[in-house]
Amino acid sequence: MEEQGFFYRDTWAEIDLDRVSANITGLKELLPNDVEIIAVVKANAYGHGDVQISNTALMAGATYLAVAFLDEALSLRKKGITAPILVLGASRPQDVSIASNHEVTLTVYRTDWLTEALTHLGKEQTLKLHVKLDTGMGRIGIRDKQELQTLEQQINKDVRVELEGVFTHFATADELNTDYYQQQFTRFQEMLSWFNNRPKLIHSSNSAASLRFKEAGFNAVRMGIVMYGLTPSIEMEPELPFPLQESFSLHSRLVHVKKLQKGEKISYGATYEAQAEEWIGTIPIGYADGWIRKLQGQEVLVNGIRVPIVGRICMDQCMIKLPCELPLGTKVTLIGEQNGEVISVNEIAERTDTINYEITCIISNRVPRIYKQHGKIVDVYNAIAD
Ligand SMILES: *Cc1c(COP(=O)(O)O)cnc(C)c1O
């Protein structure tokens, strides 16, 4: 590994790139051949690492990447990604010139945005756009026929701009009740009929919809959470069309081990008290790593056994109750598998009253990422040494 790849702390996340590939292959096999996969790598690929996931996704058959913000697209360009990238969220009109320079596709969702954006685009510059239609998500997007037709005319009049795509986003595609999905789908089809010339790429499905609703595939789907091997919702889990392979795991090591006597206490507030003689281990991970204080009491794996976090979680460390005296350096798994015992991202999400999406996103970039492929370490990324 290069010098910058090293890290000097016994806490790391591991990303299994083979599993990411397998998840993409799973979806690819489910989709008709002419439906493209847009790999959604916003938020540093949901905490997994944008460039590594982008490369893996493109190798596995994705043809387009999507991020939320222009900065994320530029970061990928800087890291050498040349594939098309779509910015799904709002960009500022004054930034179209830089988007054009780096061949980044932007989302347009207002005519006044376009009017202003065009004043910032150089004479020789070109810009690709996808238009976002709001069919019921209520976030960004055009809702009105007149506005869409004005936008289409505006774009047609300007040779510098290409309307390459049109898309919408479902609010309830991961829920068993499909009524609202159906309404949005019908509305999208109606809105598509408002075009004089439909753009080349039509996409509406996120992961959940791409697994469940063939008709919403059009000619591209946006694959986020499923690429990482996580279910879009707990209620969808029983009906997943292929098994998902969780690619993210989180590990640490015992850096201190001690015996407590009955009545001795642990951590801020001295809230935990040993009930008898107890072996307590310290691991170097805390809430600044995204291992939030709400995870007090959560179990972790040591030698394949579940043991609880005891006392309050500190900014950089927390303590666990050990089954016996264990050597310093013993591996502790906070998310992932040890000897067949598994702590899933979903378990952590449930414990913290949130969804799996949030968990991998909030493991902060203070935690180095190790990438594995074909059983070998292929990359190490330590953001704070970058
Ligand atoms: C984040 C996002 C996605 C990906 O959703 P998943 O549920 O992770 O597949 C797709 N489309 C848009 C517009 C998004 O913002």
List keywords for this structure.
386 residues, alpha/beta, TIM Barrel, Lyase, Ornithine Decarboxylase, Chain A, domain 1, 2 domains, 11-stranded mixed sheet, 21 strands, 26% helix, binds pyridoxal-5'-phosphate
Describe the structure.
This protein is about 25% helix and about 25% strand. It has helices at about 15-30, 40-45, 50-60, 70-80, 95-100, 110-120, 145-155, 180-190, 205-210, 345-350, 355-360; strands at about 10-15, 35-40, 65, 85, 105-110, 125-130, 160-165, 200-205, 220-225, 250-255, 255-260, 265, 270-275, 280-285, 300, 305-310, 320, 330-340, 340-345, 370-375, 375-380. Strands 1, 10, 11, 14, 15, 16, 17, 18, 19, 20 and 21 form an 11-stranded mixed sheet that branches. The protein has an 8-stranded parallel β-barrel with strand order 2-3-4-5-6-7-8-9, surrounded by 5 helices. A two-stranded antiparallel sheet has the order 12-13. β6, α7 and β7 form a beta-alpha-beta unit. The longest helix has 14 residues, at about 15-30. The chain starts with 10 loop residues before the first strand and ends in a 5-residue tail after the last strand. Pyridoxal-5'-phosphate binds near residues 40, 222 and 225.
